[in-house]
């Protein structure tokens, strides 16, 4: 029987990756920490913006949803540029744009101003971070790739744990406008500094890239035409449809049922804390029990969290929900580069990650907007939570199809097999 994971062989791709490779992991973790801390801080800016500008929740949700779509679309181009010109140059530019987006957001006075500052400039800056840094780490590591990617992905959970409540406290200490300004300066500086440490690993020619795995990397054009890429993107579309319902609206839902805003922000922190452990462990778990089984476990956790959330009212039950939800929220992020790298190799991985992130962004945008629209229409989030649970069922169906295709292609040079 073939190894289930032909993209994770037992040798590393260069003789001494443990030295600078871990510097790469550290720098990439910091960039993920900043990026996703800023992304999920939107949840604590939500009500201050709505109250100051008298926007309804669907409008504030729409701005976020549009930013997610733009971020996803730009990720394709950012990934292609990183594959062509190198990650360091692209990430320096991304850091500058991220800082500028937040600085400009601090001076908005109309909806269209905020859309340009946050929805366009900030989103383009954030667009390529996940795809580019995970592709970079994947090229530096073959042995322990799951662990390295888990460490990088844990930066997202740490950002959620620290930056979201930090932003909440900063807003209370000053106001939303000054908070945007301060965060923009700090985030831009950290991103540029971390990006300067990025390097491409030695001998990253296509020939060497073929040697680093037990199966050849699939050329970009062939990968785009592969039906498995469509299944993968739809799978993550549905998964993040549900994830963004929670991450954008959990604080709103909690405060609606009587939880204090500062306490509600700690629910996001608990999600972030649990997700760190999930991200660190899920790559290793996937290598032990198989990718399909680990994906199914994450789906079960996500479905259970939506069912639990419908009945959640007290603070302790919100904390229980945060623990259950933090497992799939964290674990799925690590799975994305593992799935893409396993099916298609790493030669054009940043571009393929950009395509995947685009579809993920569409799912997240639809989920966050739809939840706001459902609330405005029904004055309740229950319909949104049910929609999230239904999406998980679709994910399980796609996992079954991928596994079936993996068995059918087991005799070929690429693909996942049991």
Topology at a glance:
Blueprint lengths: L16 H37 L3 H29 L1 H19 L5 H17 L1 H12 L4 H29 L2 H20 L10 H6 L8 H6 L1 H30 L4 H29 L1 H20 L4 H30 L4 H30 L3 H27 L10
Helix pairs in contact: 1-2, 1-5, 1-6, 1-7, 1-10, 2-3, 2-4, 2-14, 3-4, 3-7, 5-6, 5-14, 6-7, 6-11, 6-13, 10-11, 10-13, 10-14, 10-15, 11-12, 11-13, 12-13, 12-15, 13-14, 14-15
Structure, described:
The protein is mainly alpha-helical. The protein has a single domain (17-201, 218-405), classed as MFS general substrate transporter like domains (Growth Hormone, Chain: A). The protein is 82% helix and 0% strand. It has helices at residues 17-53, 57-85, 87-105, 111-127, 129-140, 145-173, 176-195, 206-211, 220-225, 227-256, 261-289, 291-310, 315-344, 349-378, 382-408. Helix 2 packs antiparallel against helix 14 (349-378), helix 3 (87-105) runs antiparallel to helix 7 (176-195) and helix 5 runs antiparallel to helix 6. The relative contact order is 0.17.
- What is the CATH T-level topology? Growth Hormone, Chain: A
Q: Which class in CATH terms?
A: Mainly Alpha
Order of helices and strands: HHHHHHHHHHHHHHH
- Structural class by SSE content: mainly alpha
Largest beta-sheet characterization:
none
Mean pLDDT: 81
CATH architectural grouping:
Up-down Bundle
Can you say what the CATH homologous superfamily is? MFS general substrate transporter like domains
Q: Helix segment count?
A: 15
The rough form would be described as: globular
Count of extended strands: 0
